[in-house]
Amino acid sequence: MSLEDRPFERSRNLRIENCSDTRAKAIFKGVSINEITGTRKHSEMPTNYIEAVNINCDPVINNTIEIVKYREWKYDFKRFEKEIYKSKNVCETINKYFYFEKKPLSEEEEKFPLAFGFVMYKDLVQIGKRSQWGTYGILDNVYNCFKYLAHLKHDWKYYQYLSGSDLPLRTNLEMVRIMKALNGSINSDIEEYEMDRYRTMEGIHPPVPLFKSAMSVSMPRAAANYIVRSQKVKRLLRYLSHTWIPDESFWTSIAGNAPLLRVPGSYRARDIIWLRKHMNMNPPWEKTTSSVGTTYIGRYQVWEWQKVCGGQIKSWSCVFGVLDVPDIITRPELIVHKLSLSVEPAAFMCILKEIRYRSHNPIEFDATSYSEMPTVELYSGKRITELTHPEWLLQSSFYRG
């Protein structure tokens, strides 16, 4: 892809959101097409875009009795893939079928641009260095993308990681307000490091204590600028290159080691882990945008040991289905992981359409609850005994039982 085609060179925001209306065939077993077509529409959406597929998502979003029918909804997405693979101008073909906003949708978004690092492992059109799961190659690719963004002259404010099976749960405007509420703090998952991940480095002290985290992270620009220039971070990367699944050891090993690493927005992960072990409280049941209920909002993911998956389990993690959607859209996280067009594609399309519709028809969105997350308050100077919601610290995204 040429420099002119890179999203950050063309506009102040990269966004992934959604809409409706189409000409292609939908296959719906046992149900007439008229029952599933037609939904609220974004009037500017040309019918050639994939997300303009004509499916009525109201029963899925509102969890009505008809929702079960949508588990059987099919759509021929392969023809788009074939055209992209065969195309002599890949970027032009992608722009033909995928909708990208040409300018910010509000002044608030224009003044607070966001950066996204997007790493995929399958269904690739452009191929970078090959990475195998569990090896350093994944972290190397993620970090190179992160470093590229950090060195840009573009004045983005926060970085968010995405994978190829992610979909946004928040509009770009909602993300902007949430990132503002983070107030310069880093948002990463927090778990104890597992001993079997040291591999050949067992007995060799790392540059900083290691912690486990999910891949997805929200990182302020000041932290990014520090990280890519830090010699200690470089030593940490070299150390992690000899460990197992290093991509799950990087972000919180950086963000959770204040003051050993003076990264802007950092916190003390060991204090949070200690609190989990000694606090006699229950984690909140409710987790919504008005009561976040957690301290990690990077992405919503369900592991096979956590709850029932309405779609399919792949690599120990839920690929969400249609029956999961009503719960997913109430969640406070920024991203949902995993969704696939090969597993109950109506789930993917309906979340996509809902977010696109809200992008062009904004709802009232108050991000106050996000400013009450424990890591945000700890970064702002509160003691751990002064937290508004200490119980929000109790579960990481890997929680069991």
Summarize the structure in words.
This protein is an alpha+beta fold and 401 residues long. The chain has one domain. Strands 3-4-8 form a three-stranded mixed sheet. Strand 9 and strand 10 form a beta hairpin.
Per-chain topology:
Layout: H1 7-10, E1 26-28, H2 58-62, E2 73-75, H3 78-86, H4 90-97, H5 107-110, E3 114-119, H6 136-151, E4 158-163, E5 166-168, H7 172-182, E6 191-192, E7 211-212, E8 218-220, H8 221-227, H9 231-240, H10 251-255, H11 269-278, E9 312-314, E10 317-319, H12 325-328, E11 335-337, H13 345-360, H14 368-371, H15 374-379
Parallel strand pairs: 3-4
Antiparallel strand pairs: 1-2, 4-8, 5-11, 6-7, 9-10
Helix pairs in contact: 3-4
Count of individual helical segments: 15
Oligomer: single chain
Strand order of the largest sheet: 3-4-8
Radius of gyration: 21 Å
Profile the largest sheet: 3 strands, mixed
Whole-number total of structural domains: 1
> What is the string of SSEs from the N terminus onward?
HEHEHHHEHEEHEEEHHHHEEHEHHH
Strand composition percent: 5-15%
Low-confidence sequence ranges: 1-35
Structure class = alpha+beta
The rounded distance between the terminal residues' Cα atoms is: 45 Å
Shape: globular
How many strands? 11
Mean pLDDT: 86
Summed up:
The protein has helices spanning 7-10, 58-62, 78-86, 90-97, 107-110, 136-151, 172-182, 221-227, 231-240, 251-255, 269-278, 325-328, 345-360, 368-371, 374-379, and strands at 26-28, 73-75, 114-119, 158-163, 166-168, 191-192, 211-212, 218-220, 312-314, 317-319, 335-337. It has 401 residues and is an alpha+beta fold. It is globular, with a radius of gyration of 21 Å.
